[in-house]
Here is the input.
Amino acid sequence: MSVATQRRTQGQPRVEIARIGEHLLDGYGSFFGLENPLSKILLVFCTFIFPATGLGGVAGGLSVILARRILRLSSYTEGIEIVNGILLGMLVGSTYALDLKSLALLMFGAIVLVIASTVLTDTLTRFLRLPLLGLPYVIAAYVIMPIGTMLQLLPGNSFHLFPSLWLACPLWQYLPSFGAIYFNGTVVGGLLTFLAFFLSSRYLALLGLASAICGTIFLEQLSLARGLIAQDPLLFLVAQMNGLLTACVVGGLYTIPSKRSIVVALASGLLASALTITLNQILWSTHLPVLALPFVLATYAVLITLSPQHGAAWSVFWLLRPSLAERSLEQIKLAEARGVDLRSVSLKPPFSGTWQVYQGFNGKHTHQGTWRYALDLFQTESNVSYVESGNQLSHYHCYAKPVLSPVYGRVYNCLSTCNDNLPGQVNTVNNWGNYITIEIAWAKYVVLAHLQKDSVRVKPGDYVVPGQMLAHCGNSGRSPQPHLPSTLI
Here is the structure.
């Protein structure tokens, strides 16, 4: 082994450890899209005010990463799974004493979480277009907590609450709901979390504060707040937390910033607070806590009820891709300056070199209706697409040329087993022939079709980036000569 090779080999573990550490740190802020490094550090510090909670969170995130490596899964949902793993770890760290038994239980929970996430991605996300949110964490928690009871694990410090003396100052009673997201329902924990939000997005921080205030007033009007604080302060705090979570995700990440989105976000938060009380009564006999289940259910209810499919008024309400309000407003200004619609999708050419458009939008042959935005691409030299007689596939300039990904996204489906047609013949049974469908956002897909047989290099679930080679141009399906159709649906 050469010295250079030996150095590279020795350096690989360090690079891998650094990459894992970066993914873990990103997990603390990625649930809310917090990109400021200081925001992530503040959130980590918030969890480590109570060491068992902080260590549990780190162990949970690492357990998910390890479980994914063991199962050799693609990286498409890794980010949200790490977030859920951190939450699961903090739950274990705050509920049980950290020892070998509780850590083994956490590792088992991480495997359950990854499996649940994979199943939900291929069902809930694929068919209903709903994000995972914290549902994998809730499912894994409900699986391992009864096991923890059976194993008679030693109790931990439990959920950390704010002292009642802070209620003398009205402002302080709203801060712990921020910290409760990271299992530190104290004023200090809430202040650190609020500052983390504020550093990355003032809009998100103030929206969360408004939700906490509205949730408290709502519970007071139901004559529940005082009773909950006296009898079950944890339930009151969890109701506040679920309301805050829902408002921040709905209004701060998924919608175009506006007065209407603020109203919807606050109303969604109130729904989550009410669901917390209801679910607590339902789950009381099972001895299971409500955790973040009200947030998940309330968010799903709003996403489904106010989807564009149920009313044209909501067609320009939701963002194609979740983003912080400040970034969304920046995108709106850029779209206005460019004279394009905010919801337009930028695509890179799915080829290299110079190609021509054989048939464009609303073409006279096949680009009608749903497929009106398709482009048929091919190559010509001296205005001719082939050499010699053109009766062989190899005569065509674009045949077997690389097909590249035009977007960031996930492979939704693909096919690579159809035979290529001879020039002039078509396959009317499999119109698309060999194809790749890439999911880029809610209900938005890019289709690349008529690909060469056995040339597809990706599989469903793979994450792709612009410029990545996906397949070769072919002549399969309803295609009389080699060309590359590309369409957004």
